[in-house]
């Protein structure tokens, strides 16, 4: 049986201080986005963000503990079995845990469209390996993500970062150039990004 | 902002400012006759359109996932929100306390029985590679419950509102036809079947062939006109 308790899911501490508990990745779900979150050092439990890029409708359901959600300018303290449904993707939303045991389930997708696996999941999954300088595993995770989304500029850019840090300079340059070709704004990021220090002087490095 | 801790049967209206709050505890459970289980009608209340999402609730020994298979390619995730449940998936069984997630692929038999009072299990479903479509099984089931309570007009209002919200859904028109058929309203049922056929003839013909809900219509001359 494909079964796991929320506490048995991977616990990936992210730089913003919350802990991502990958649900969709764990079970290989393809039809909808679903993840869980628990608090990390900052007490944040849902990252403050909008869905204006992905245009997802999102439901945040408190599974355990008490959580203070901020949606737009409003604050709401919710407990187990209570949820926030954010229909408007432009609306900024986030949450902090008020108790140590808090856990939030997030469900999301774009109405009227088949679900696409979000690029951020790949990037988040690679964070622990990048933090441990395990560039080969971080690269492998990105390659896996690119198999699903081969022309995702953000994924290509991130892969290039990992390859540059991991000493695969030729691959890094190729993937960075492809990211910029698909979305020119990444050239401006690359100019300032220390991940590319090792390849900045290479011929063909994108001009900002 | 509209804080709505309200009854499940009410037909929802749009929130004005982009979000809503809801407590599962405040949703009135609806006992579904066919499933023999109590539904918390989450998708309908929220108007969620990105995936199928509902919840089941029950006391010790009661169904919190009705025994079934998803034959439409749906994969489903069940989350024990409160209490405890005994899951059966295929030939396997598992104890699932609150916080447990169970993923079930299509065409796999699944069921769960509550092991504690007040158990709540969230069910999320969708078909990989396809946009979620409202088929209205939940609208039908609630309308069925209302008719069994002697409130057929309220049941019809639920289905009519659902069809208004999803005008292109062949399945909602079809399910409403089934509901009218079972209620003995052949005229309404045939009108709805014609509407459903206009929206997706192939699907309606496929489902209508063996659907017992439509048995009351099969000897009517209009059935032969529509289905030959």
Task: Please provide a brief summary of the model.
The complex is a heterodimer of chains A (208) and B (228). Chain A is α+β, with helices and mostly antiparallel strands.
Structural class of chain B: alpha+beta
Strand order of the largest sheet of chain B: 3-4-5-12-7-10
CATH superfamily of the largest domain in chain A: Jelly Rolls
**Total domain units of chain B:** 2
Radius of gyration of chain A: 18 Å
Helices and strands, with pairings:
The complex is a heterodimer of chains A (208) and B (228).
Chain A: E1 2-5, E2 12-13, E3 18-22, H1 24-27, E4 33-39, E5 44-49, E6 57-64, E7 67-71, E8 74-78, E9 82-86, E10 93-97, E11 103-109, H2 119-131, H3 135-148, H4 153-165, H5 169-182, H6 185-192
Antiparallel strand pairs in A: 2-3, 3-4, 4-11, 5-10, 6-9, 6-11, 7-8, 7-10
Chain B: E1 2-3, E2 19-23, E3 30-32, E4 37-40, H1 42-46, E5 52-58, E6 63-68, E7 75-82, E8 84-89, E9 92-97, E10 100-104, E11 110-114, E12 119-126, H2 137-148, H3 152-165, H4 170-182, H5 186-199, H6 201-208, H7 221-227
Parallel strand pairs in B: 1-2
Antiparallel strand pairs in B: 3-4, 4-5, 5-12, 6-11, 7-10, 7-12, 8-9, 8-11
Helix pairs in contact in B: 2-3, 2-4, 3-4, 4-5, 5-6
Describe this structure in words.
The complex is a heterodimer of chains A (208) and B (228). Chain A has 208 residues and is α+β, with helices and mostly antiparallel strands. Chain A has two domains: 6-109, Jelly Rolls, CATH 2.60.120; 119-196, Tetratricopeptide repeat domain (Serine Threonine Protein Phosphatase 5, Tetratricopeptide repeat, Alpha Horseshoe), CATH 1.25.40. Chain A is built from six helices and eleven strands. Chain A has helices spanning 24-27, 119-131, 135-148, 153-165, 169-182, 185-192; strands spanning 2-5, 12-13, 18-22, 33-39, 44-49, 57-64, 67-71, 74-78, 82-86, 93-97, 103-109. In chain A, strand 7 (67-71) and strand 8 form a beta hairpin. In chain A, helix 2 packs antiparallel against helix 3. The longest helix of chain A has 14 residues, at 135-148. The N and C termini of chain A lie far apart (51 Å). Chain B has seven helices and twelve strands. The interface between A and B is large, with 50 and 49 residues. Strand 9 of chain A pairs antiparallel with strand 2 of chain B.
């Amino acid at each position: 049986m494909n079964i796991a308790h929320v506490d048995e899911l991977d616990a990936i501490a992210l730089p913003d201080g919350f802990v991502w508990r990958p649900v969709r990745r764990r079970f290989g779900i393809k039809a909808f986005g679903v993840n869980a979150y628990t608090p990390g050092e900052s007490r944040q439990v849902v990252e403050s963000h909008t869905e204006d890029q992905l245009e997802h409708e999102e439901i945040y359901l408190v599974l355990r503990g008490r959580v203070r959600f901020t949606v737009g300018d409003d604050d709401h303290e919710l407990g187990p079995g209570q949820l926030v449904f954010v229909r408007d993707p432009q609306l900024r939303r986030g949450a902090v845990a008020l108790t140590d045991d808090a856990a939030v389930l997030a469900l999301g997708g774009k109405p009227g469209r088949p679900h696409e696996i979000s690029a951020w999941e790949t990037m988040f999954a690679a964070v622990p390996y990048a933090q441990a300088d395990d560039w080969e595993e971080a690269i492998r995770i990105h390659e896996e993500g690119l198999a699903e989304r081969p022309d995702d500029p953000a994924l290509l850019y991130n892969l290039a970062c990992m390859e540059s840090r991991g000493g695969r300079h030729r691959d890094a340059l190729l993937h960075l150039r492809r990211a910029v070709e698909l979305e020119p704004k990444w050239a401006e990021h690359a100019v300032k990004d220390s991940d590319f220090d090792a390849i900045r002087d290479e011929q063909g490095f994108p001009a900002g | 902002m509209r804080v709505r801790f309200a009854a499940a049967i009410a037909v929802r209206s749009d929130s004005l400012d982009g979000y809503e709050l809801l407590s599962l505890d405040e949703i009135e459970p609806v006992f579904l006759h066919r499933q023999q289980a109590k539904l918390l009608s989450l998708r309908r209340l929220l108007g969620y359109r990105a995936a199928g999402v509902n919840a089941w609730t029950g006391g010790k020994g009661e169904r919190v996932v009705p025994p079934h298979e998803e034959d439409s390619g749906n994969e489903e995730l069940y989350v024990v929100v409160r209490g405890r449940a005994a899951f059966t998936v295929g030939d396997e069984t598992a104890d699932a306390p609150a916080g447990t997630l169970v993923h079930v692929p299509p065409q796999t038999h699944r069921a769960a029985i509550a092991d504690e009072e007040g158990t709540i299990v969230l069910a999320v479903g969708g078909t990989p590679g396809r946009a979620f479509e409202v088929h209205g099984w939940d609208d039908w089931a609630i309308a069925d419950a209302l008719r069994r309570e002697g409130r057929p007009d309220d049941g019809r209002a639920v289905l009519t509102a659902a069809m208004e919200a999803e005008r292109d859904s062949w399945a909602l028109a079809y399910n409403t036809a089934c509901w009218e058929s079972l209620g003995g309203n052949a005229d309404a049922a045939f009108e709805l079947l014609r509407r459903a056929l206009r929206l997706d003839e192939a699907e309606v013909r496929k489902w209508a062939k063996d659907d017992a809900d439509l048995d009351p219509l099969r000897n009517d001359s209009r059935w032969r006109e529509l289905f030959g």
